[in-house]
Every structure is written in C-alpha cells, then in structure tokens.
C-alpha cells in the first residue's frame, strides 16, 4: 500500500477590486487514491470461507464413514463373541463326554481283565481236577472265589 501523495492546489485568483495584498497561505489539498486492499481482503475472506466449508464437509463425511465402519465392526465383534461362547460350551460338553467315555472304557477294561483272571482260575481248577491234584484243586477253587467275586462269568 502506498501513501497518498499531496498535490498542491493553486490559490483562487484575487478579486479585481481588492487591493493587491499578500494572500494568506493555503494548505495543500491531499487527494486520496482508492486502495485495492479492501478487494484483496474480500477475496481472501471468500477464499477462506470456501476452504472452511470444504474442510467441514470432508470432516463430516469422514466422520459418518468411520462411525458406520465402527458400528459394523462392533456388530461383527459381538457376533464373534457369541460364536466363541457357543463353541466354548460345546467344547466343555465334549470334554465332559470324553471323560465319561474314558471312565466307561476304564471300567470295561477292568471287567475284561477280571473276566480273564476268573477264566484262568477256572481253567486251572479244571486242569488240577483232571490231574487228580487235590492241593492244586483247592488252590484253584480259592482263586475262583477271590477273582470271580464281581459276578463275571468264565
């Protein structure tokens, strides 16, 4: 911005009837040129408003998109948590079923070994009776009573 420059204005001519005297000193008149600063400021203000509006729109649009994405992910997390809970309960039930089956298998194996011992004692009794050995027959009979107490059949 440039400073206005004063331009001297000539004094008005003296009236013809007046005696010639020294004219009072006149002050120079300053002519103010119109500045372009107002137009520049207005341009920048409009430019700023347009930029602020664009930034506001971008913020609003991004916020809506991210809120929707967060809501979708929250719903997906809840669904996965429910799936995990259902699979966890199924896993716990399967583990309990496995323990029950293992206990049943152990009981069946014990019964098989008891039956095998009972069968062996019965075979020893028959063999001792056929051989005519009274001591072996008595021992075999005692083993039959001790090993076949569970009600197993030879």
Name the features.
154 residues, mainly alpha, rod-shaped, 2 strands, two-stranded antiparallel ribbon
Would you kindly provide a written description of the structure presented here, covering whatever features stand out?
The protein has 154 residues and is an all-alpha fold. The chain is 71% helix and 3% strand. The protein is built from 2 helices and 2 strands. The chain has helices at residues 37-131, 134-147; strands at 6-7, 29-30. Strands 1-2 form a two-stranded antiparallel sheet.
Task: Give a quick summary of the entry.
This protein is an all-alpha fold. The chain is built from 2 helices and 2 strands, in the order ββαα.
Topology:
Blueprint: E1 6-7, E2 29-30, H1 37-131, H2 134-147
Antiparallel strand pairs: 1-2
Q: How many domains comprise the coordinates?
A: 1
Radius of gyration: 59 Å
In percent, how much strand structure appears in the residues? Answer: under 5%
Number of helices: 2
The number of strands is 2
**Low-pLDDT residue spans:** none
Relative helix content: over 70%
Strand arrangement, largest sheet?
A: 1-2
């Amino acid at each position: 911005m440039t400073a206005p420059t004063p331009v001297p204005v000539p004094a008005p001519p003296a009236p013809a009837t007046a005696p010639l005297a020294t004219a009072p000193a006149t002050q120079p008149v300053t002519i103010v040129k119109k500045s372009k600063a107002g137009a520049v400021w207005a341009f920048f203000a409009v430019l700023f408003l347009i930029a602020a509006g664009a930034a506001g729109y971008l913020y609003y649009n991004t916020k809506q998109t991210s809120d929707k994405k967060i809501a979708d992910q929250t719903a997906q997390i809840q669904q996965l948590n429910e799936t995990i809970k259902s699979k966890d309960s199924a896993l716990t039930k399967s583990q309990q079923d496995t323990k029950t089956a293992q206990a049943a298998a152990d009981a069946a194996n014990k019964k098989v070994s008891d039956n095998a011992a009972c069968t062996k004692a019965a075979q020893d009794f028959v063999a001792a009776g056929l051989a005519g050995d009274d001591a072996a027959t008595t021992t075999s009979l005692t083993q039959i009573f001790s090993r076949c107490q569970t009600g197993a059949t030879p």
